[in-house]
Amino acid sequence: MNIGEASKSSGVSAKMIRYYESIGLIPAAGRTVAGYRVYTMTDVQLLRFIRRARDLGFSVEKIEELLALWQDRSRQSADVKQIALEQIAGLEVRIREMQAMMDTLRHLADACCGDHRPDCPILADLVNGPDQGSNGGEDERTPASRSEKAAGLQAH
């Protein structure tokens, strides 16, 4: 089958198939005399494996490890389980980080009046960061005025 058919059968875009081939994650496809890539059902199975691993958030490096274990009939399932447990731990960290981001954004959105006035605690936080608090009444839309003000303070 050609790359389009392999893409459709595996759920991996043709662009990603070419990328995976270029980095050596999958072996180079066979070629027709005209130079077109030719894929087998084994190649499609490999691509499905990769797609599913990516869906579960595994990095390319971890997918390489998983592929090696999958292809190694003398593997120990404990090795595969360890990789999965490491992935779970990483996902849990990311979930906590994302929850903290949501909490911060929710707090900032709640603090914003959302009216016709220009004052906006969301923009002030983006400019100053969480530890700086208010920008002292400056219009957060004018970074040049802050730079000029800072330069003026340094000159004194």
Automatic annotation (TrEMBL):
Show where the HTH merR-type domain sits: 1-69
What PROSITE patterns would the database entry show? HTH_MERR_1 (PS00552), HTH_MERR_2 (PS50937)
Extract the ranges annotated as region (Disordered): 127-156
Q: Which Pfam families match?
A: MerR, MerR-DNA-bind
Predominant subcellular localization, coarse grouping: cytoplasm
Q: Which residues cross the membrane?
A: none
Subcellular localization is given as: Cytoplasm
The alphabetized UniProt keywords are: Coiled coil, Cytoplasm, DNA-binding, Transcription, Transcription regulation
Residue ranges annotated as coiled coil are: 81-108
Which portions of the chain have biased composition (kind: Basic and acidic residues)?
138-149
Q: Does the keyword Nucleus apply?
A: no
NCBIfam families linked: CueR
Q: What is this protein called?
A: Cu(I)-responsive transcriptional regulator
Q: Which organism's genome codes for this protein?
A: Albidovulum sediminis
